[in-house]
Amino acid sequence: MALAKQPESDRAGPPRPGAERVREILIVDDHPLMCDALALTLKISFGLKSVRTARSLAAAQEQIRRQGAPDAVILDLNLPDARGAEGLVTLRRQIPGVPITMISADLENAMISVAMAAGAQGYISKSLGREALVDSLRRMWNGERVTPDSYEPEQASEEDAARAELARRFASLTPQQMKILRLICQGKANKEISYELSIAEATVKTHITAIMSKINARRRTQAVLLANSIRLFEPA
């Protein structure tokens, strides 16, 4: 079983709610059994007022727009409409002051490094037992940055600042621009993007110009390389 290691020092950022002030959380996970079991466990363990759930990134965004921001978010790494860092980058833009915990079976060092650089409060394994899970979340909600024991931050420390800055640039993209960038990374031409999103090709070109400006890329190939460098979109 993967355990969470001792905390790293917290980086500067928006104020975090203490664990005792976390009364409402949002779990974003497309596996019903995992989602429901996690919701029940946390509601009992923390005496939470409310545990909201969403099965996709789009559903989570809409729920936040309608119901407001939760006190904390637990986000699955891979969702039907967002794989890799995309979900984290997108929600970080929408709810900048809310601690987001990534949860996944993928404990690869590079992926954890990207998630932490992109603003995750912590990264935990789906294989954690109940006590370890509750302890990890309590520490995160108290402001600590928690990662699995297997994570070696020193291997990525030199690149973390660059990854964090790049993640901030991608977070400035609008939802439509993020969709277009995803299609660009899939190798789609402007005409194909226009057809798939039901927008004019001229509109696609306008969005691409804005995307390039925001992420400081000169060519489509460079934009793809930058997205891949922070694993923004993982292959299905």
From TrEMBL:
Q: Which residues form the signal peptide?
A: none
> Which terms does the UniProt entry file under GO BP?
phosphorelay signal transduction system; regulation of DNA-templated transcription
In terms of InterPro entries, this protein maps to: CheY-like_superfamily, EvgA-like, NreC/VraR/RcsB-like_REC, Sig_transdc_resp-reg_C-effctor, Sig_transdc_resp-reg_receiver, Tscrpt_reg_LuxR_C
Tell me where in this chain the HTH luxR-type domain is found.
166-231
Residue span(s) of domain Response regulatory: 24-141
- SUPFAM superfamilies according to UniProt: C-terminal effector domain of the bipartite response regulators, CheY-like
4-aspartylphosphate-modified residues are D76
Origin superkingdom: Bacteria
Q: Name the CDD domains on file.
A: LuxR_C_like, REC_NarL-like
For this UniProt record, the keywords arranged alphabetically read as follows: DNA-binding, Phosphoprotein
Asked if the record carries the keyword Zinc, the reply is no
Write one Gene Ontology MF term: DNA binding
Q: What is the name of this protein?
A: LuxR family transcriptional regulator
Its source organism is Paracoccus halophilus
Its lineage opens with: Bacteria, Pseudomonadati, Pseudomonadota, Alphaproteobacteria, Rhodobacterales
